[in-house]
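worker-3 :: picked Acetoin utilization protein AcuC
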Amino acid sequence: MKKAVFIYSPDQLTYKFSDTHPFNHKRLHLTIDLLKNIGALNDEDIVPARVATDEEIALAHDPQYIEIVKKAGHGELTAQQGEPFGIGTEDTPMFRNMHEASALLVGGTLQAVDSVLQGKSQHALNLGGGLHHGFRGRASGFCIYNDSSVAIKYIQEKYGLRVLYVDTDAHHGDGVQWSFYDDPNVCTLSIHETGRYLFPGTGNITERGNGEGYGTSFNFPIDAFTEDESFLEIYEQSMREVFEFFKPDVVLTQNGADAHYFDPLTHLYGTMNIYREIPKLAHKLAHEYCGGRWIAVGGGGYDIWRVVPRAWSHIWTEMTDQPTPTGPLPQKWLDKWQQESPVPLIPTWDDPTPLYDAIPRKAEIEEKNARMLEKALHIIRTEKNRS
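worker-3 :: tokens ->
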């Protein structure tokens, strides 16, 4: 059994709305090139993504919606016809072959699932996935098909396992949460910037599930300008409590890299420190509770030059038990990509210090987050005692 596989096909880069859209999968190419430059990723580690079938996508999406996406990608849909389905909007504009590109991202996550659950590898990474805002019959927030929702349904139908979904994207993982809101065999945990300031506006601690699924949805909304220490305290405590409460058979983590200070779409003040620590704890707990069964996907991350390649590289090096990268980035990589980057690249694995001016409200923000954490942990412990 391999330690981990890296799911990727160059065609995953065809998921592209426009040259100016903030969602840019060139970040996949940048990350792979960085990992290869440090000798952490070899061609034999890479498994090509497959295309998900319509039947597989329909595990989490209406067949009518799938047909709408196909029409949009073949120039057979007007913006007016697409609007009720979230297609042709400013966030999710139409592009050529959008169904085919989206099905490849979903298929990559299913490929990761099968690799782990068929015993071919302990872990699997599909950075092209993590499109957590897609709904059953509507695109949302740059996400056409929700690969994580499809993958969780696929795991349930094919393998009959209990799934913990962990989302550390700065935006609430609403599409996945609502897909399993009444399902007691899927637990969702999301740490995100509060919806008071940020899309999609959901993810309050009071969103706890419904019906038989009540008590399996956990949200940790953090204040704008939250820094590393507060973020990591919430992450560590919530992860340990939720793993112990739910005792999953397999964990699927969504690894958005948009909680970083440089990210243009969010208001959090994270640094590369959090992206070193997030996969470490996920890896540890996957072995403690799930026999090592850990599937990871990408997600948000809109500073594709300075943040995403460094952040996502840490997931792969952690999965494969390689040393945490430190020191300078490879000069070859910096020289190659600086010509194209609109901003000066960060030349080291660590961020420069200080990265930003001191925050006047630091104590207030940390206290607010601590109160939220205590309330959320109380909810988990109450559910644990109830069960």
